[in-house]
Amino acid sequence: MPDTPAPFDDLVTHARETRVIVVGGGIAGLVAAWECAKVGMPVTLLEASDALGGTIASAEVAGLHLDAGASCWTAGGPARDLVDELGLGERVVTPRDDRTWIAGLPKGGAAPVPPQSVLGIPANPWDEAARRFIGWRGAWRAYLDRLRPPLTIGKELNLARLVRTRMGDAVLDRMVAPLSVGRFAVAPDRVDVSAAAPGLSSALTRTGSLGGAVADLLVDRAGPAVESLEGGLAALVDALVARLGDLGADLVTGVRVDAIERTPEGWRALDGSEELAAADLVIVAAGPSDAARLLVPHAGDAVTQMTDASSSREIVTLVVDAPALDGAPRGAQVYAVPGSGRASGLVHATARWEWLAQAAGPGRHVLHVAFDRPAGDAGEQALGDAELVTIAREEASALLGVALDDGDVRGWHRARYALALPASALGHDDHAAAVRASVAAVPGLAAAGGWLSGSGLSRVVAAARDEADRVRGAALWGGSPRD
After folding, report:
1. What is the mean pLDDT of residues 9-13?
2. I want to staple 307 with a disulfide (CB 3.0 to 4.6 A). Which of 54, 215, 288, 363 is the partner?
3. What is the mean pLDDT of residues 174-187?
4. Which whole-number Å values give the CA distances from 32 to 43, 50, 444, in the listed order?
5. Quick one: 6-52+235-308+425-477 is in which CATH superfamily?
6. How far apart are CA 289 and CA 375, in angstroms?
7. Taking the model in full, what pTM does it have?
């Protein structure tokens, strides 16, 4: 008697005969490729750049191996599950300092974000930590939140309108907007409250005020907000690449896919008229502009509604000699009041991560300075390296309140990435559902990536796994993917 039943043998054979093309070698593409390869499917991954990982990138700067893009994930969740599954759990680290400051306040001021706040909304506007932002006049205006009649409580979904009507412009402009723009490059008037802070609207109904709702949400808040890996997130990419290699996947870099074509035999990936690969399934996990170009001919204009909303972020990494930063005078991250400077914010990486501070040594610091632009706007990308590094140093000086001279800079790196909207952006879920429906209607086609799932490593990982499972399941259990 055979050790395995015939249906299982048939399934294994079917998997081994079902070829998969993955277009895009960012984290979404690598995860989708792995989900298919680990059940025996032959996978060819095509990446336009010379490196895999997408926004999870690294660079050698002044002798330090550094994250040059994404550097952490929201604690726990699908990203942590992936890390554990890849055997990297022992390398997980939490911040030694995760305080957030906001700079660019009136008269050049800066202050730490009150710990008793959600999305920058204070639980108590009279608290001194909040008054440093809004002053006595702003505190009086915000206190009207407690006195307003509960006629529309829990109904307003637009973050900007909710905060402005209940607590006033000072709270919105000086506390909420810097965090929304700095973290996600999205203005508060484009943020859905129910997605950005689940439970806030219902807490608003229960407590009768926005401040009371914030206090209510904070009751169950505990533990670190983010996690990372000792040595940097590049280890996650390396682990996925190694696993894919062990499974026989073909990972090809430096190849741009101009189009995907559906044929009676399945799918072809094309560079002009040249066929790059042929397969039964194709998963498009490219960035927003490439995804739109590849998917629209097959899935329609619903894709364009998602990809047109993207923006870009240029990150300038500076390694500086600045002993004045040893005490992390403004915490681990500083965001700017919109319009107060050219940078949207920075991460003081050596303040945040103990392993990096030890590698850098006393007096040497790593700063990631972010510049945001709408998609298609060249912005800082048009500047030469020397000019941009000077601007980044000057912006870092203003954000940190510590003078940094040109001679303090020991090394630098610049990188530009497409910046996905957060899932909390107004209309995101509806648009994403329309895209997923139009893609799923095409046999053998799948799509993944931050532009579709929303930003954040956990969301990207979870969505890539779900999409790979959908198209993989349809091929293995639902008949031929060409049907």
Report:
1. 75
2. 288
3. 95
4. 10, 19, 14
5. FAD/NAD(P)-binding domain (3.50.50.60)
6. 9
7. 0.92
